[in-house]
């Protein structure tokens, strides 16, 4: 990993307070034991290790964490949260950072992950449940990756695993309201 | 025993065989499942990854609906749904202010008195295991299995309340009860990549490839699991992994309930085999279980 010099003007002392308030966990109690990072199955895909993300939050490197790849390749397996000796809910911190990145328009890396989440949530918003075929269709339209995994889709379709008709729930309006009000 | 049942979207779609085998097994074991009325998607990783409050609210609507059934226990076969419902339940119990906000959003009360359990936690109760043992008609003798729990049934233990989260035994106990030659391995709770499968299938191939190789190293002939996401990730990537010579061979992936139904000789379970992307019939025939 290349070393980068940090200038004082990059440091945002509000960041740690904001993240702690949103994730209900004490990020500042991290003593960099690296237990989270050694157990992380996705660390090989990350630009910053989970422990480094926590350190960056403590330092106040807002743009660097919000633009990082790490927050989007985290699979939420919760190994870090489970093993942290300081009881920091690191997986929740990752959720908080993703949400902050989206809301501030700073999300940059792993665009397809965001498109997937958008497609997934739009299915829930429409029907109350996820209709897999529609969700996949929406994702494909967003990414233009029409042929990727088409073979697997065909195999599933042949076996009757993919439903053609969505299952709208009666409480669709109530579910839509949850989207509107949160 | 009557329990409220939340199948979730996968069990009504790509994981129909999990829903059907769960219903078969529960019926045989006198566990009455009452599907909660008009349930919605739990929000899965997409909600909690992008909108914290929405993720709690979507899950909480289901908890409130489950409470209306008058059952004291809610069971969820999908590990991802289980963890979302359990996490919402935990957050609501822990934080009175959030509880007020959420109940006002969903416009329904939620007392927080519901016990939320993954289906394997019910099936592995000693009295149920005893019932399973009594009902075994076709012991899965010589079938070499490894049980794979993945992440979201066990983690984080503060939320899931699972004690042996690094080495869970629920499915192992069940496989032993039906006579399988169950193997131990150290990959029970490793991650399969979960919701990364669509956008980052390369990651899914890598992580599921590790799991399949480790199952092979434990000399298992199949993997037994209890999560639709793990099932899809382990099953659908095998053709590509084999073509790239990254796994030695394809192996069937079973939902634990399918193997319980098979051992209890519930005929309808055979209808589920054609739904598998890796056909389990040659293996079952070779073991006299076809």
From TrEMBL, chain B:
Top-level taxon in the UniProt lineage: Bacteria
Ranges where the Cysteine-rich domain occurs: 3-85, 171-234
GO molecular function: oxidoreductase activity
Record's keyword terms, sorted: Oxidoreductase
InterPro entries: Cys_rich_dom, HdrB/HdrD_reductase
Keyword Oxidoreductase: yes
Protein name: Heterodisulfide reductase subunit B
Organism of this sequence: Candidatus Abyssobacteria bacterium SURF_17
